[in-house]
Amino acid sequence: LLCRLDDTASVAANENVALRSGDTPAATEIKRIHNLPKPLRRFVRNEFSQLPWSGMTRNIKEFVLPISGGGYTAKFYKIAAGKELPVHTHKGNEYTLVLDGSFSDNAGDYHKGDFILADTQTIHQPRAANDCDCICFAVMDAPLKMTGFFGRMLNPFLK
Q: In percent, how much of the chain has pLDDT > 70?
């Protein structure tokens, strides 16, 4: 999976995107994209908002990257400002890089550039900061395992 990140066959058009000046949301979005780690830029053409996000609620969205496979799932996920994921643990390992915004859980606060490892011993409920959405890149070798009452009903649908 990691070696496929360096595959130059599908370099994104946004790798050469010029940064726009101004305080508009679109300009801010372009700047965020430009600041993505280079191997991830090809998956986001212009703006995160243009990705075909999916999810069960409007507060939590994901975009599974086409490099997923071989027992690993790579995805971008977005937690809306001030919202939280259900309480959960992990059936394996999840490696997360905060790309934009921040979130917190019972172990601490995580900001842009922070790397987090969650495993089968981790039980948490990540919550995005109130001021902006939190966007992360995550790679996991097993699905999440919801632990709350309503979350447990979702477990059969998680990949």
A: 70
